[in-house]
Amino acid sequence: MASLFANYFNGFSGFFTPYVTVSMILWLAVGVFLGIYIGAIPGLSVTMAVSLLISFTFSWDTYPALALMIGVFTGGVYGGSRSSILLNIPGAPAAVATAFDGYPLAQKGEAGIAMGLSTTESVIGGFVGLLCLTLLSPLIGRLALNFSARDYLLLAVMALFLVGSLSNGSLAKALITAFFGVVVGMIGMDAVTAQPRMTFGFSSLLSGINFVVVMIGLFGMSEALYQLHFELKPIKQKVQKILPDKKIIKQHLPLALRCSLLGTLVGALPGTGGDIASLIAYDHAKRTVKHPNRPFGQGAYAGVIAPESANNAAIGGAFIPTMTLGIPGDSVTAILIGALTIHGIRPGPLLMQDQPQFFWMIVGSLILANCFLLFLGLTGIRLFCKVVEVPKYVIIPIIVILSVIGSYSINNSITDIFWMFFFGVLGYLFKMHDFPVATMVLGIILSNILDTNWRRAMTIAHGQLGEFIGGFFTHPISLILLLFVIFIAIPNSKKQKVFAFFRGKKTAED
Prior knowledge:
By secondary structure, this protein is mostly helical. The chain has one domain (2-460). It contains 23 helices and two strands. The chain has a two-stranded antiparallel sheet. A hairpin with a 6-residue loop joins strand 1 and strand 2. Helix 4 packs across helix 6.
């Protein structure tokens, strides 16, 4: 253990001497600042921003170029929470769960508290993910490498059971919208056979319906229509204090640490990322927080703390397979691998041996990026909170314009605008009849993971269902995940009976 910390100190201290320059620190700060405001604009994704930076920084030195990208990555994941809290329009997929309680807080005049909590908890999650990256990279990297297609399928099924937590009403309605989301996510060309699937002969559907377009419609346009219907009045915000109360942070610190570890682990699984991590963390909070300040979905502080700590922790987690295995943890790190290759760096198992200074450059950049996030994330909150106080006749046209621009900017396609309006009307009808829209988003996110890994798992099992099912009981990771799925699927009343049996007590029903 002593040698581990000695290596950590030597590598980390080495980062600050030959590699950090004033220009690199400035580019990190600029990246975080840009990321916050790019993430806050619906339709402008972090993935899009980082991909554009590859061509912009092509002729730069390696370290300043990567510093700018890492800054945008860190700031962008957090920035999505701002529009999520103020307008109920997630600026990024990782901020979907933040809207469940962040927007009700804004409706109660507590947008400042919600945004202050999202900032501080994002920084806590970022540092926890970073600590795991530095100390546990080899261990978590090997664990992620041992995950098979069958395990990713179980992980997606586990996440699909979150519909019970994401719905405040009928579970049947939540399952209907989740199933509809899975169907929408599968529209397009089959990933294995390349055959058109549910395109009905329209060539514009061959590439599928972009998830961000659906999200903007379901959360943005539908909210504008909903406010027109109910004539909601602007809410005066209380922003006397931006930093959240120490009691709130101290009370929820164990939850933030648990969700940060959960986000790191989920982020370390290739192909997942902050969107899945935040939804799983939100479900964890609903199941474990016994006495929230308000019911979940009505402005619970824990409902903001859990997803915000998890999605930023997933950044450090996503770098673990990227650095140790050369396998991207999410879409942004996939682009970063391309940027590294352009600059002559090959992430993978030999990186720590051949180029250890580069690993510590990533670690140091993430540390500074989180420090900048704490400072820059707490600026502009008072100005942002004025958005909620803007009269309806002003804010609704702005929401519609942002929704249209955001939808068009993804693929420069008029078709995406029509789809956005379609899902906006659909989301409005869902809200009017108490169907949760969040579960449809979850279904779309999970559809590709379910489809791809089911096909891969059946191919590995040679198309034999018996061999496929038998693998769940012969592979330790599959067995553990299967037990988790069964545990989540059991109704809470049955769980209480099981726990009471082992404690030797009787439940109220008994």
